[in-house]
Predict the structure.
Amino acid sequence: MTTYSGDVLGWQTPTALGRDFESTSQIYAVGSIAGTTKVQTAPLTQVPIRCMVYLVREQDHIPVRKVASDPITGAYSFADVPKHWTYTVLAGHPTLSYRAVLADGVFPT
């Protein structure tokens, strides 16, 4: 059974089978996943927005990390992510005015 440490929703550092996910950076090759969050305000205009961005490991659907994107640039980054798994990145609008977006099949670089 997988248990999570952190908040009630389990979006903090997961502990699977008694081993911290964060400690895998000492075992496996690691990379990073980065991007930006933006809202389309006109047909050709996109404005950066701050929102929570979640990283989920696809093989077992374990929530790995969450970060808040930068309010000025919309940039987010997940560092020290093991390269041998694929991930899904989810971003949701803070006031739920827009639908959440996701990118699946993301590999760390």
Remarks:
- The chain is about 0% helix and 50% strand.
